Amino acid sequence: MRPKIRLFVDQPLGQGQPLALTREQSNYLFAVMRLAVGAEVAVFNGRDGEWRARVTQANKKNGALACEEQTAPQVTPPDLWLFFAPIKKARTDFIVEKAAEMGARRIVPVQTDFTNSERIRQDRLQAHAVEAAEQCGTTFVPEVTDLQPLSAVLDHWPDGRRLMFCDEARVGETAGLPPREGAAGPWAILIGPEGGFSEGERTRLGALDFAHTVALGPRILRADTAAVAAMTLWQMQLGDWA
Amino acid sequence: MRPKIRLFVDQPLGQGQPLALTREQSNYLFAVMRLAVGAEVAVFNGRDGEWRARVTQANKKNGALACEEQTAPQVTPPDLWLFFAPIKKARTDFIVEKAAEMGARRIVPVQTDFTNSERIRQDRLQAHAVEAAEQCGTTFVPEVTDLQPLSAVLDHWPDGRRLMFCDEARVGETAGLPPREGAAGPWAILIGPEGGFSEGERTRLGALDFAHTVALGPRILRADTAAVAAMTLWQMQLGDWA
User: Fold this and answer.
1) A198 lies in which domain range?
2) Cβ contact (<8 Å) for A241 and B97?
3) Which end of chain A is more exposed for a tag (fewer CB within 10 A), N or C?
C-alpha cells in the first residue's frame, strides 16, 4: 500500500537519507494530518524518483523524515514547454496546475500585445506547480519562469524546438499537428490571452518556419481550456499518451 | 463587424422580433456597459442561430431590443453527454463551463459511491452553462440536469448511446477510443470524482457492452482536467474537431 501523502522535498533522496521538513510541511503533517513518528510518507525531489520515507521527528515546526526505499523511478515527461499569456489570477493558477498535470516540462508566462498583467508572482506559480505534482503522482516538477515578452522569446528561440501555435482567429478551421514521424524532438505550445493575438504577432508567428498553426475546434475556448486541450492533442499525438 | 456583446435570450428570434431583457441583462447592458438606444448586441436562444439586435429601450431595469438580421445559423454540437461527479464548488463550476465550451450537448452531475456532494444547485450550474455559451460564440446551450445516482443512470441507459468511461485506475495504460468508422452516433463521457470509482462501480462499468474504457495518460488528472482532456479526445476523433 502506497502512502497517501506525497511531498516534494528539495533535498537529495537515497537509502537512509535524513530529510528536514519545512515549517509549512511540518505543520501540515503533524498539526493538520496528525501523523506520528513511524508514519509513512511518499517523497520526491524531481530528480531521484519517488521514495517511501518514515517520520522520525513529529515536530509541528521542524519535523524530519528518513528515506527508506525507492518506490518509483524518476520519470521526466517529454520535452514540451507551455507558453501562455497570464490572465485573471484564478485562471493563471489553473493553467499552471493543469500544465503540471498534463506533463509540461517548463511553463513560461509571456507578455503579449493584449496581455493584461504587467507582472506575475513567479514564486506563487512555482508553488502551484509543486502542489499539482504532489497530487498527480508524477516524480517531475516543471519549472515556472518569470514573465517574458513574447517578442524576446521569439528573438531567442532555441534551435530545433518546434512551436504549436494555437491561433484563436482560426476557430472553425481544421489545422492539426504534423504526424509523429519526423516531428519528434522538443516542442512548445503557445496559448494566447483573451482577445487573442495582435495582427503583428499573428503575422510574425505565421512566418516562422518552426511554428505550426493549430486550430482548436469550432468554438472559442477560454485560455485555460485551450491550454488543456492543446496539451491533450500534443501528448496524444507526439508525447507520452500514445 | 460583429457586436462585442453576446446575450442568451430565452425568446423566439426573427426579423423585427422585439426582445424583453431581464433585470440582470438590463443592468449589465445599460448600467455596467452603458449602451444607448441604437447600440448593437448579438443574441441567441439555443434554437434560432445568432441574430444582430438593436437596443430600443435603454432602461436599467427593463430594457428592450429588436432583432434585425440573422448573423449565424443554428449549430447544434454532436450528440455528446458529459456525466461527472460533482466535486468542490469552484471545480464543479469549471467543469460545467468547460463542457459548454467543448460542445457537450447535455451535462449530468452524477452521484457515485465516492462523491462528496449530496445535492447541487442546478439553476446556478445552468446559468454557468449559459454564460459559457455567451462567451465561446456558440449558438447552443447545453442542458444541465439535476444530480442523478450513477446506478440509476446505468439502469436506464438509452439504447444506442456509447459510453467513454475514463477510469483513473488505468492511469499509465493505453486505451483509446474506437475508430471513427462504426463509432458514429450518440456518446457520453463519464468522469469520476477525486478518489475514482469504487470496485463495485468499476466492475459494473467494465461489464457493460456499451462502455469503452479509456486511459488518460500516465499522470493522475484532477476531475476538471480529465473532463477537458476526454472531451478533446472525443471531439477530435469522433466529434466536430476533425
Assistant:
1) 80-237
2) no
3) N
